[in-house]
Amino acid sequence: DSWIEKMKFPCTSCGQCCRKLNLALETDYNNVVLNEMRDNFPYKTLKDGSCEMLTEDGLCSVYETRPIFCNVAKSALLAGFTDLNAFYRTAAEYCNNIIREGGLDESYLVKF
């Protein structure tokens, strides 16, 4: 875990990935492990596209025990990505796209 902590993804805690979980679950990741994690995601997606575990105040109610799919660093490692920086750049692009589409303030953009 210490290595993962050192290489932590620069998440801005905007919550957009939780509000638009449907988009993440509809994506083909071109990686068997990521697709398996996606296919076995344990929580429901609500009609508005959000995760059922998202609270009214925009926080994850299971954050400490969230699925690995919801943890960028652990997902990358489990999926066998050896270039974590490249994986993070791709994840940051995805994040920034849904942040912009959601009309969130530019301060939420992931800088990587």
List its salient traits.
112 residues; mainly alpha; 0% strand
What is the 3D form?
A: globular
How many strands, which pairing sense, and closed or not: the largest β-sheet? Answer: none
Low-confidence stretches: none
What is the helical fraction, as a range of percent? 40-55%
Strand content: under 5%
Radius of gyration from the alpha-carbon trace, in angstroms = 14 Å
Averaging pLDDT over every residue, what do you get? 91
Number of helices: 6
> Can you count the beta strands?
0
SSE succession: HHHHHH
What's the short version?
It is built from six helices and no strands. The chain has 112 residues and is mostly helical.
Helix and strand topology:
Layout: H1 2-6, H2 16-19, H3 21-26, H4 32-39, H5 72-78, H6 84-101
Descriptive notes:
The chain is mainly α and 112 residues long. The protein is built from 6 helices and no strands. The chain has helices at residues 2-6, 16-19, 21-26, 32-39, 72-78, 84-101. Helix 5 packs across helix 6. The radius of gyration is 14 Å and the shape is globular. The two termini are 21 Å apart. The mean pLDDT is 91.
